[in-house]
C-alpha cells in the first residue's frame, strides 16, 4: 500500500469544534468511500459522531476489521453532537444491518442484526439500547466463510411524532432476518440517520475479488468542514493507491488516508 502524497493544511477557529467536525467529515467520507453511500443510503449527512465500543475491544474506528468473537456482544453507543445547536432529545431508532461486501445490490434487502425503537440519549452522550422497545435484540455477525468482508452499519435515526413501525416489525423479540432498511425508514416515517459507524467482519478467505472502492478524496473534507463550521477554513489532500486484492487491504486503505490526514493534525479520527 503506497500513499503517494499526503498534504494537510488546516486553520481552525475552535480546536474542539474542528475535532468533532473533522470526525463527522471523516465518517461521511468513509461511508462514501466504502460504497455504503450511495448503495445502502442515498445520502448521509450526519450531525453527530457515533462511538461504538465493544466489550474487550474498545472504541472502534470506521471500517475496522473485527472478528466475530470481538463483536459477539452488543456494543455501548455514545453520541457527540457537531455543535451546541444540535440537541439529541426525543426517541431514536438504533439499527445494525449487514450491507454485505462492497458492490452488493442493496435493493435485495439487508440482514437486520439489531433494531431498537425508543432509544434515548441520556446523561449527555450514552444511548440506552436496553430500554425502549427491543424489536430485534443484538445478534452478532456470522458471515459465511469465503463470502468476503461484510460491512456492518450501525445507525441512529430520529423517530418523529408520527413514527409508526410496520406491523410485521413492531413486536419485541422478532429474530434476526432480512428486511429493507430503506423500506423500513420510509414505512415507519423515520428521519434520516443523524449518526452512524461501520465495521467489517470476514470469515475464511474470500473466493471472489471484491469490487474496487474509490479513493478517499480528502479534499472534499475541507468543503464539508467549511460548511459545518462556517468560520473554519481548511484544505487538505491525500491520495492513496489501493491494493488490487484482499478485503483487509481494502479496509485499511479505506481508513489509511484519513487516519494519516488526521494524524498530521494530531487529531484522533473515530
Ligand atoms: C460524500 O459524497 C457526497 C455526494 O455523494 C458529497 O456531497 C459529500 O461531500 C461527500 N462527503 C465527503 C466527506 O467526502
Ligand atoms: C452545527 O452542525 C450542523 C450539522 O453539522 C450544521 O448544519 C450547523 O450549521 C452547525 N451550526 C453551527 C452554529 O455551527
Ligand atoms: C469517543 O471515542 C473517542 C476515541 O476513543 C474518545 O476520545 C471520545 O472521548 C469518545 N466520546 C464519547 C462521547 O464517548
Ligand atoms: C418516546 O416514546 C415513548 C414510548 O413510545 C412515548 O411515550 C413518548 O411520547 C415518546 N417521546 C417523544 C418525544 O416522541
Ligand atoms: C443517568 O444518570 C443517572 C444518575 O447517575 C442514572 O440513574 C441513569 O440511569 C443514567 N441514565 C443513562 C441513560 O445512563
Ligand atoms: C455510560 O454507559 C457506560 C456503560 O454502561 C457506563 O459505564 C457509564 O457510567 C455511563 N455514563 C453515564 C454518564 O451515564
Ligand atoms: C413487512 O411488510 C412489508 C409490507 O408492509 C414488506 O414490504 C416487508 O418485506 C415485510 N418485512 C418483513 C421483515 O417481513
Tell me, rounded to a whole number, the average pLDDT: 79
Gyration radius over CA: 18 Å
Rounded to the nearest angstrom, the distance between the terminal CA atoms is 22 Å
Share of helix among residues? 10-25%
Unreliable runs:
1-16, 226-270
Count of DSSP helices? Answer: 5
**What sequence of helices (H) and strands (E) makes up the elements?**
EHHEEEEEEEEEEHEHEH
In terms of DSSP E residues, the strand content is 25-35%
> How is the biggest beta sheet arranged?
11 strands, mixed
Structural class: alpha+beta
Q: Which ligands does the model contain, each kind named once?
A: 2-acetamido-2-deoxy-beta-D-glucopyranose
- Outline: globular
Number of strands: 13
Organism: Vararia minispora EC-137
Protein name: Phosphatidylethanolamine-binding protein
Report on this structure.
This is Phosphatidylethanolamine-binding protein. The longest helix has 19 residues, at 15-33. The strands form two sheets. Strands 2, 3, 4, 5, 6, 7, 8, 9, 10, 11 and 12 form an eleven-stranded mixed sheet that branches. Strands 1-13 form a two-stranded antiparallel ribbon. The radius of gyration is 18 Å and the shape is globular. The chain has 270 residues and is of the alpha+beta class. The protein is 22% helix and 31% strand. β7 (110-122) and β8 (126-128) form a beta hairpin. The model is unreliable at 1-16 and 226-270 (pLDDT under 50). The structure holds 2-acetamido-2-deoxy-beta-D-glucopyranose (7 copies). Residues 76, 123, 126 line the site of one 2-acetamido-2-deoxy-beta-D-glucopyranose.
